Amino acid sequence: MTYNLNGKNIRIPDAEIDKSMKLLGISHDEAVQMWLEDEGYLENEVVEELTAKAKVNKVNHEAK
User: Which of 28, 39, 50, 56 shows the smallest number of beta carbons within 10 Å?
Assistant: First the structure.
């Protein structure tokens, strides 16, 4: 799908939106917003705060 954000057309993979909707039980609009936030097109204050805390605490996201 193509999403227009502030005059900029962004290509969002339909499979990613469908996958998020099914796995998380969220609406289409919520899945689109989540994708835009994850890809850095939109900012989410909560995510930014948690990311900053993780960096301070040197959280390692790699499983061992």
Answer: 56
